[in-house]
């Protein structure tokens, strides 16, 4: 392997240690940061992610409640809960864990969630602020990616970046954030033609596809920075598999994120840091 590792786990540890200090300072002033979560109880992956987020919250001193969304939760119940949490001054962040059960309209629910508590940065208001270059909470996963690049001093100005994937929580905001950092950005998706050739031109590749090891080593320009946001379960393989074929890509890339230990821990660290910021804002705005 010739690539250097963009170590998301190590940076997330550092971030969490700094967040703990900020939380201690808040608690000393009578504010305990609180993140409340709404999660589909029947979705084992969501429940697992929420447990992991809760564990890291507890480590830095963020408290919170989880509310189960079930097949019997109506849209009115969901909206009612979000409005209640919006109005509760003790709640600083609200996380609507995706996906919700199919009978619920997730977009309608997100439109209700107050931007000042949208610590996952995925409501239309927060995304609009990103598009408009206005301050606001940024999406946790792309924010984690940008912080990782910044930490390792990766140059983005004038660089060719290719983001593979255009989801509202990952691909699109990641592309916009790279654009804000003055990269020249291409967004690729399932209808993109000659994807391998497009990737070969990239100084920075962000894979956000959900297809195990789709990005092969020979798609990578020598020395490029490769960020793998994917995590996929593959029959017969232990643990999560990224969207990038790590073995071959790491022979060519200059920098690469591992899976696990790259983008995943940075996502949670960014969520926590947004939540601490939301709690700090309540003091500033007093
Ligand atoms: P998604 O909503 O399913 O979006 C996938 C995107 O990939 C879509 O834009 C799709 O294009 C595109 N795509 C699919 N097949 C393609 C192909 N053959 N060539 C090029 N583009 C293709 O997924 P997501 O929520 O963005 O998640 C993407 C990956 O990131 C998943 O592995 C997920 O588990 C992971 N993830 C990780 C984190 C983290 O914290 N690390 C957080 C969220 C998600 P179309 O738009 O044309 O369909």
UniProtKB/TrEMBL annotation:
- Offer a single GO CC term for the protein: cytosol
Listed under catalytic activity are:
(6R)-5,10-methylene-5,6,7,8-tetrahydrofolate + NADP(+) = (6R)-5,10-methenyltetrahydrofolate + NADPH; (6R)-5,10-methenyltetrahydrofolate + H2O = (6R)-10-formyltetrahydrofolate + H(+)
The UniProt record gives the binding positions of NADP(+) as 165-167
Membrane-spanning parts: none
Identify the Gene3D superfamilies for this entry.
Leucine Dehydrogenase, chain A, domain 1 (3.40.50.10860), NAD(P)-binding Rossmann-like Domain (3.40.50.720)
> Domain Tetrahydrofolate dehydrogenase/cyclohydrolase NAD(P)-binding spans what residues?
140-281
**SUPFAM superfamilies according to UniProt:** Aminoacid dehydrogenase-like, N-terminal domain (SSF53223), NAD(P)-binding Rossmann-fold domains (SSF51735)
Family of the protein in this entry: Belongs to the tetrahydrofolate dehydrogenase/cyclohydrolase family.
- Please explain the role this protein plays, according to its UniProt record: Catalyzes the oxidation of 5,10-methylenetetrahydrofolate to 5,10-methenyltetrahydrofolate and then the hydrolysis of 5,10-methenyltetrahydrofolate to 10-formyltetrahydrofolate.
What protein name does the entry list? Answer: Bifunctional protein FolD
Which species is this UniProt entry from? Fimbriimonas ginsengisoli Gsoil 348
Identify the taxonomic lineage of the organism of origin: Bacteria, Bacillati, Armatimonadota, Fimbriimonadia, Fimbriimonadales
């Amino acid at each position: 392997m010739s690539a250097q590792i963009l170590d998301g786990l190590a940076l997330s540890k550092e971030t969490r240690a700094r967040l703990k200090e900020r939380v201690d300072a808040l608690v000393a002033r009578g504010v305990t940061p609180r993140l409340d979560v709404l999660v589909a109880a029947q979705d084992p992956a969501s429940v697992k992610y929420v447990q992991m987020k809760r564990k890291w919250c507890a480590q830095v001193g963020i408290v919170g409640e989880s509310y189960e969304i079930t097949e019997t939760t109506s849209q009115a119940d969901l909206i009612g809960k979000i409005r209640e949490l919006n109005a509760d001054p003790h709640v600083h962040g609200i996380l609507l864990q995706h996906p919700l059960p199919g009978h619920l309209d997730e977009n309608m629910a997100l439109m209700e969630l107050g931007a000042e508590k949208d610590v996952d940065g995925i409501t239309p208001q927060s995304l609009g602020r990103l598009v408009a270059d206005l301050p606001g909470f940024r999406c946790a996963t792309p924010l984690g990616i940008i912080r990782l690049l910044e930490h390792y001093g990766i140059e983005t100005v004038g660089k060719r970046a290719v983001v593979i994937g255009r989801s509202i929580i990952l691909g699109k905001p990641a592309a916009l954030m790279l654009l804000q950092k003055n990269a020249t950005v291409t967004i690729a998706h399932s209808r993109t033609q000659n994807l391998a050739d497009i990737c070969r031109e990239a100084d920075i590749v962000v894979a956000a596809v959900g297809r195990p090891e789709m990005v092969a080593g020979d798609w990578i320009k020598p020395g490029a920075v490769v960020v793998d946001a994917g995590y996929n379960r593959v029959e017969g393989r232990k643990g999560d598999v990224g969207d990038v074929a790590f073995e071959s890509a790491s022979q060519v890339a200059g920098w690469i994120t591992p899976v696990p230990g790259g983008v995943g821990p940075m996502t949670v660290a960014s969520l926590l840091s947004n939540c601490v910021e939301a709690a700090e804002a309540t003091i500033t705005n007093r």
